[in-house]
Design a protein that fits this description.
Strand order of the largest sheet of chain B: 1-2
Number of strands of chain A: 0
Order of helices and strands of chain B: HHHHHHHHHHHHHHHHHHHHHHEEH
Largest sheet of chain A: none
Number of helices of chain B: 23
Distance between the termini of chain A: 28 Å
Largest sheet of chain B: 2 strands, antiparallel
Helix content of chain B: 40-55%
Radius of gyration of chain B: 22 Å
Helix content of chain A: 40-55%
Order of helices and strands of chain A: HHHHHHHHHHHHHHHHHHHHH
Largest interface: A-B, 49 and 48 residues
Strand content of chain B: under 5%
Shape of chain B: globular
Shape of chain A: globular
Number of helices of chain A: 21
Strand content of chain A: under 5%
Distance between the termini of chain B: 66 Å
Structural class of chain B: mainly alpha
Oligomer: heterodimer
Structural class of chain A: mainly alpha
């Protein structure tokens, strides 16, 4: 069994890594004082105008974040836009930009006493929102100590799937403290699809994975995590979190409905003027009659696909419990939470298994086939499933580059096929599974190596 | 055996008396169904043209068979969409499934007569009742009253007609509803308003002087009112009915379709809570019938209007507390609806009343973007315009009719698809609220 060095530090046993999984999923309540973006963005630190080449850090991270299209830097500013004001009004709030409800994800909303002198809330989701409060490690960080040293002093190991998933999913899925409820959605908040590896690439990344980076971040490890592993671990963390949200008493039925944002958006939100607008279709992995609201399960289905290759026993267990979870919505909330607890156990166990696996080219081949089979064999053709299938294949293709695959025409053909897939899911209201399956078949034909 | 049957009849008799009082579902009276062919003789109801001087049009069969979708109800079950739906519901062959046939054919419980064909769909006796007991007197110039006494169904009675139509066009607590499972399997959405749907069926009768003499004077406004009352009663019955719950969920068929089935539009209309007091993101009951009744009652019975409004709000808000409160509020709303029927049925709508009602509906439509409300507003206005036409001396009737058509045109048109393909009509196109408001204002101008 291959065990990563950081898990040795954390305990080394499977139990240890399971605890690590749940620990990583939580952002510590106090990670020290946040010094503000300014303390990172000087031009001889991370605020260079042009990137340095072939080094472990390009030093233009601030520029990428601020001007390179990263929406995290605009997260606070959108709270001042008309849509945010409208959402706030619908929620009986005087504004959005001063509300904890909004700021907890639209800014690095640490309490006043942990805001350094240069800290500025309006900078949105800044450096320390993800990398952790810098007061404890800025000194050694500037002093050029090892990455492990920095991490030991409190810097978040965002290069590692579990830690990154913990940070991203805290807002992009939510937890007991921050969660985009259906009330907030109903007030006008847009839906939030997410897949860890794809969204890391879309951010866009302010780092480049080169040899210097690998040497610095993963020194002494048998292999560095690639996007496929990021994707797989991200799925397990995503499912674990969603189950935790189902277990949260706050999300239990109040009146006639449980928390609706845990359900599949397009199960309800679809047009109904043409026969092809119909969204319900029979699914063995769900087993619900027509007209029933379905729990969001796109990441769980994808996790099951990954597990079938990497950990078949865990896959069987997940499949059984997932089916039980869907069936439980036809019974009562106690049945739902019992089933959710089982699915969560499966997901947590899979975090460990997927972290330990060395994802290589054969995995890419097999997983791409399995993912495309989900669509082609009609296992899950729901829109939310299609979104995850596309993201999965995008991450697999990205990984091929990371694994040293350099045949440019081939990679171009894959990307063209991915674009075609994306076009078939561009508009959820115009989504037609037949077109998606056709695009998927096309991808499958192209993805050979 | 015979005694048992007699006892059963007694029970039915007793319960239907009780039901009649509470305006609960009315079953067509017992009688063997003899089949459409029995009625459609060329010198009975199967004339090719309306017969002058006759008490009825005599071409009812032709109107029904050529232009009325009820005649195609069974044929719909032969098409691919019906097969897909039946497969999704594990029903097997839709033409054999009681769940489909119950409304897509005349499912008489008795052994039908030799000329009866289930393929005729929703035929004469599905609505008028099995003819075995009254056909004899009916063709022997008996009075309408005598026919009724022998079991002819009183379709001219607005309440009875409403109950009869809504048995299928919504459902009832004794049989079953067109529930959300059927919608989820692909059944088209059913919109309904008694007066408009009677007219667009199209009606195979004309309210002539002769008709009025034999059956009494029935106005469009009475039919509209009865339709709204019974539709609201049926909705509340569905809420009260425990069967409508399935696992975590109530039967969403009693809710407002568009409260869930909408796109994610960042620039939303007025917040839901301004109407219901509900939080954003809440699922809202379909309260369109209650809204219509409130508008009508505001002029005729203001006390009841207020009461209806209060309890509909309480019903909506109860969805955020518990189902028990929802059900008790539903019982109250049901009672208020029935009291309103009594109050409104006695009201004789003058042209001034109809104009005032139209004004109130137009005022509502120009501010209320809920599709379920706007659709009912449109149909209510159609009933009013039909009602105004019974006063042929009124000025501007032609302009009003044209303006009304323009309002109707802002709604998606049902796709006309040859029923031989088994395709149910579907709404095609999109409702444009702004165009609706513009057309409403124009209608208001012509009515001044």
């Amino acid at each position: 069994m291959r065990v990563r060095w950081w898990r040795c530090v954390l305990g080394g046993t499977l139990l240890g890594s399971m605890l690590a999984a749940s620990a990583a999923a939580q952002i510590p309540a106090d990670d020290g004082t946040h010094l503000g973006v300014t303390s990172c963005a000087s031009d001889n630190c991370h605020g260079r105008v042009k990137p340095l080449d072939r080094v472990r850090v390009q030093q233009d991270e601030y520029l990428t974040w601020q001007h390179g299209g990263d929406k995290h830097s605009q997260a606070y500013k959108v709270l001042q836009q008309p849509l945010a004001l409208r959402i706030a009004k619908n929620l009986d709030l005087p504004d959005a930009e001063h509300q904890k409800l909004c700021l907890d994800c639209h800014a690095d909303n640490v309490p006043k006493e942990r805001q350094g002198p240069q800290f500025d809330l309006t900078e949105g989701v800044g450096c320390e929102a993800c990398h952790g409060g810098a007061v404890r490690w800025l000194g050694i960080h500037i002093a050029g100590r090892s990455h492990a040293d920095n991490v030991e002093h409190g810097m978040v190991a965002t290069e590692k799937p579990e830690a990154r998933a913990g940070r991203c999913l805290a807002c992009h899925v939510g937890d007991d403290k921050r969660f985009v409820t259906h009330q907030i959605m109903g007030a006008g908040h847009p839906p939030m699809p997410f897949e860890l590896a794809t969204y890391s690439q879309k951010m866009p990344p302010h780092w480049t994975v080169n040899q210097a980076y690998i040497d610095f971040k993963f020194k002494g490890q048998p292999n560095e995590p690639n996007d496929m592993q990021m994707w797989a671990v991200g799925l397990a963390e995503d499912v674990s979190r969603r189950m935790q949200l189902l277990l949260d008493p706050k999300n239990a039925p109040k009146g006639i409905n449980p928390e609706l944002s845990l359900f599949d958006c397009q199960a309800c939100h679809h047009a109904m003027s043409k026969p092809e607008d119909l969204q319900w279709r029979p699914r063995a992995s769900m087993g619900l009659p027509p007209g029933r609201i379905k729990l969001y399960d796109a990441t769980a289905v994808m996790l099951w696909v990954v597990a079938e290759r990497i950990a078949p026993d865990a896959a069987r267990s997940l499949h059984t419990h997932l089916l039980a979870l869907h069936q439980a919505t036809g019974k009562d909330w106690n049945a739902v939470t019992s089933a959710a607890a089982e699915v969560q156990k499966d997901a947590i166990a899979l975090v460990a298994a997927l972290n330990a696996h060395d994802f290589g080219r054969e995995d890419a081949k097999a997983l791409a086939t399995a993912v495309s089979g989900i669509a082609i064999d009609g296992v899950d053709l729901d829109y939310s499933g299609a979104q995850q299938e596309y993201d999965a294949l995008r991450s697999i293709v990205t990984t091929m580059g990371q694994l040293g695959f350099t045949d440019r025409p081939q990679i171009d053909a894959w990307n063209e096929a991915l674009d075609r897939l994306l076009a078939s899911i561009a508009d959820d209201q115009a989504y037609r599974p037949d077109d998606f399956v056709k695009a998927m078949q096309h991808f499958k034909e192209k993805f050979v190596f | 055996m015979r005694r048992l049957a007699a006892a059963a009849l007694l029970l039915i008799g007793a319960s239907s008396a009780a039901l009649a009082q509470s305006a609960a579902p009315a079953e067509p009276p017992l009688g063997v169904h003899l089949g459409v062919a029995t009625c459609s003789g060329s010198n009975c109801h199967g004339s090719t043209k309306p017969v002058r001087g006759s008490s009825v049009l005599n071409n009812e069969y032709l109107t029904w068979s050529r232009r009325d979708l009820h005649a195609k109800a069974y044929v719909m079950l032969l098409g691919e969409p019906a097969k897909k739906m039946a497969a999704a519901l594990n029903l097997g062959d839709p033409t054999k499934a009681e769940r489909c046939l119950n409304c897509h054919a005349d499912t008489t419980k008795d052994t039908p007569g030799p000329l009866f064909h289930i393929e005729d769909g929703v035929g004469c006796e599905a609505c008028h009742g099995g003819a075995s007991r009254w056909l004899g007197s009916h063709i022997s110039n008996a009075t309408h009253q005598q026919n009724l006494e022998r079991g002819l169904f009183p379709t001219e009675n607005p309440i009875k007609r409403a109950e009869l139509c809504l048995n299928c066009h919504f459902g009832d607590s004794k049989r079953y509803y067109l529930n959300h499972e059927l919608y989820g399997a692909g059944h088209p959405r059913l919109a309904f308003e008694l007066d408009t749907y009677t007219a667009i069926q199209p009606a195979h009768f004309a309210v002539s002087e002769n008709y009025t003499t034999r059956k009494g004077r029935i106005t469009d406004m009475q039919v509209w009112t009865a339709g709204q009352v019974i539709a609201l009663v049926r909705r509340m019955d569905a809420v009260i009915d425990q069967r409508s719950h399935s696992g975590l969920w109530p039967d969403f068929a009693t809710f407002d379709c568009q409260s869930c089935h909408h796109e994610f539009v960042p620039n939303m209309g007025p917040r839901l809570s301004s109407i219901t007091g509900l939080d954003p993101g809440s699922v809202k009951f379909n309260d369109a019938n209650a809204v219509m009744l409130r508008v009508a009652a505001t002029r005729v019975a203001p006390g009841l209007a207020k009461s209806l409004d209060d309890h509909m709000l309480a019903l909506d808000r109860a969805t955020q507390s518990d189902w028990g409160t929802v059900q008790s509020e539903a019982r109250t709303v049901r009672d208020i609806a029935l009291s309103l029927e009594t109050a409104l049925a006695q009201h004789e709508y003058s042209p001034a009343d109809m104009r005032a009602l139209a004004d109130a509906l137009i005022a509502l439509g120009t501010t209320d973007q809920a599709f379920s409300h706007d659709e009912q507003i449109c149909m209510a206005l159609q009933s009013i315009v039909a009602g105004l036409k019974s006063y042929p001396d009124l000025p501007h009737l032609q302009a009003i009719t044209a303006a009304m058509e323009a309002v109707t045109d802002t709604f998606p048109k049902p796709e006309v698809i040859a029923p031989k393909d088994g395709m149910a009509p579907r709404d095609a196109g999109v409702f444009h609220y702004d165009a609706f408001v513009k057309a409403l204002k124009n209608l208001q101008r012509t009515m001044r």
